[in-house]
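User: My collaborator and I are trying to settle a disagreement about how two of our proteins should look. Neither of us wants to argue from intuition anymore, so we agreed to look at predicted structures for both before our next call. Could you fold the first one, then the second, and keep them clearly separated?

Assistant: That sounds like a sensible way to settle it. I'll keep them separate. The first protein:
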Amino acid sequence: MKTKVVFFEVPGGTDKWLNGYRKDTMPMVDALKKRGQEAEVIFFTIEKRDEIFDYVKENAIAYVSRINPGNLKHEAEYFDMLRELCALGVIGMPHPDAMIGYGAKDALVKLRHTSLVPEDTYAYYTTEEFKSTFPKSLLGGERVLKQNRGSTGEGIWRVQLVDALAEDATEVPLDANIKCTEAKDNHVEYHTLGAFMDFCEQYIIGANGMLVDMPFLPRIKEGEIRLLMLRDTPVNVVHKKPAEDADAFSATLFSGAQYRYDAPEDWATLVHAFLAQLPDITSLLGGYDLPLIWTADFILDTDEHGNDTYILGEMNCSCVGFTSQLELAESVAEEIIACIGIEVETAV
């Protein structure tokens, strides 16, 4: 009988604690064991892929993926293994295609017909699309380009025109001067539009390459609001305020942003509006169960009536950490047990 919950990790990486595990993994394992649920960690390696697959297939009722994509050298093979396990009835937390659907930047484009994302949000999968459309979108105002790869703001650029264009312009000319600020560290570069688009081709070419293009929201200076979700329940809110520098728009710690942890009740308007749209989100992103632990980042905006609105900037569910709040492991364990119980009851 399959009884175990398996946590997947990979050896090495900068996210490991002194014991070789992610700092937030063993607290979840221990919380499950405390509740009488068998749980263990398996380190995925491509050399032992088949052996791991057979063991999990025979022994696990569910898996929890705790692998930072930046540490995963064989992502395609790992995801294929997870798909096979899910197809055989192992409960995926999350399903690999949910990881892709929620984590990829083009999730924003899939959600742009909801109130969460501006309509003029685009995804570029080829350099031809990018070079054809971006000069037109930039004509309408400041834009933010986001690469699909990378982390901590790398390859996320705020793009501004330096000089005004002629009133009858239909797109920004390639020789126009632009100001580009990267979210990684808020450094500023000046380029012609053509040269900068040539530089950005690196983000589109290759596996999982793409660029997302969306309007710049100036109220990012008031802070980014991150909802930390446990399935369909918000467990805390992180308010991330960029540094005071005039060009700063990044909300990463590395760039000097200040973090504050709030209760979901402190952001009731945002929370209620977001929860009301979860059915649309799950449907538009593939119909998979909500991830076990995931985040949604929002930026304040203002509607035509002067009211506050919240625009979705990105989501993440590949391996969301909670190392600064390890007590959440108890709630995670309860949710895992509840999901297993629901699945077993449904099967019976």
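The second protein, kept apart from the first:
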Amino acid sequence: MQFHLNRKVVLTAAIAMASQVSYVQAAGYGINEQSASYLGTGFAGRASNAIDASISATNPAGISFLKGEQASVGVDVILEGGSFEGEREGSPAPTGNTKTDDFQQTSFVPFGYYVIPVDEKLTVGLAGYAPYGIHLDYEDGWAGEWLGGKTLVEVMNLQGTVSYKFRDDVSVGFGLIASHVKGELTSKPFGAVNTKMDGDDTILAWNVGAIWNVTEATTVGASYHSKLDFNLSGDLTKSGAQTGTEKVELNLVMPEKVMFSATHRLDDQWTVMADATWTRWSRFEEFNVVNSSGASVNYVPMNWKDTWALSLGTSYQLDENWLLRAGYMFDQAPVNNDNRTVRAPDANRNWFTFGANLKTSENMNIDFAYAYVKLQDGKISESKAVGPAGGVDPSYGTVVGEYKSSSHIFGVQLNYLF
């Protein structure tokens, strides 16, 4: 069966899908799920292996090595999970539920990419994807509701990309990004009083990359992604025993990162890939929501550390229609038992991934992917910080316990060559 797709329909669908994002936590607040094809190899080779238009998000130079005008549209689905078992020690007396499950919500991460060559050297593209985000929603009455209920941070990038081939084996690329963030924080600090803080912001950012085909079989790539320095403005709303609304602001930095990738084709069937990504999470020092007078109304010290994500992957050309993939990634967390919080119950994680690509026609192929992600168990002992000056509020008590979590991720992606 032959398929024909209209360019405007594909492009509109890609942008629309990428703007309807529900997020799940990756290491830190990062999101890797920007492609089903790279998910299949544990994201190994994502900055060197130009297999489809989704390389726009990881290395803008990669679009120079794609064949013709093409689009990639897809979605990754992360199933709910996560469990906490513990209690609140000290005042106030009620401990809350000692066991809380599935606070990480089932989330959809759509993405869309469109690439068109201008001539033999210049290629341009448009992309929509999610680089950062988190969606936690604890059940009412859980042991840490005084510190946090819902934590939602949504970041969506709309990127224009240009790539130039200096030689047949070398290209560089640049992406100009409009990045939009929306945040929502809820908690129940004093009995029957509920607080909700929300806000948003839009800024410009950029990324840059290069790819070199060292030999016919070996390709290396590197890319740099600028930090996202947001200043969210919105409202703090109280409901229940107390009511009222006031204007608040939150400075939020999503950090820069650097990717290094290599791809090597062993023969006509086997290809191996590797990737190392460094993220400067030490920029993320705090959640500090302030009101119009500059006073802190909600403060959470983060004090994260820089991280590395290391991955290895492979693909096997089974026949003319089926390509099989597998990969592994170690994803280092920016937190440990000393600075874990209810708004970032993160831990080092191991990714085990599998994928396949089905060629359905000369113009179209479909990627399928699955990942099992296991987080290391992590302990928490968090008290309510009173503000940047230091100290804690003993009236909140201390949440102590242990987090356990794993995730199942499914991805699908349609690639079409015009």
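Some points you might bring to the call about the second protein. Residues 7-417 form a domain with the Porin fold (CATH 2.40.160.60). Residues 1-5, 16-25 have pLDDT under 50 and may be disordered.
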